[in-house]
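Comment thread on ticket #2218

A.B. wrote:
> Attaching the input chain for the structure job we discussed in standup.
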Amino acid sequence: MRRSLKLLEIRERDLVRDISNEEEVSISKVRRIVETFLISIKNQVLLGKRVRIKGLGTFSLQQSFEGRSRVCFVDISDEFDLDTEMLRSDLVNLVSLKENLSKSLVDRVVRSLIYRLHRIENTSETKIVFKDFGTFVIKDRHIQYTPFD
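C.D. wrote:
> Ran it. Output below, let me know if you need it in another format.
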């Protein structure tokens, strides 16, 4: 008997609303923090940095077959290089400065985002699309990222 897995799609705005309710922060602030956090990951990678987010994985730059650079995602850890690597705390500081919000608020929202991604029902494949960033697909507690090309 073959068990079919359904694809569940979560809208970005629903995730933002849930984080807003959980953290008791306005939806607009949560949206700004999440968008700036994700765009900061992308921008830092495009500048040549590797971005390692505990609980999410490592983002780095890779050449595609067409010769274009694109953001890629790996969830394996190898040697750590302070010159080329940024951590979640670095991005929290960056987002805090860009959005003129406290580091503790930004950190709470980012932690909540990562926690929510891990808490998603694992019996089905779940897809979350973030505009201007890409797609996270979660299955069996494994998070995979696919960039927009």
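A.B. wrote:
> Thanks. Noting for the ticket: Residues 7-147 form one domain.
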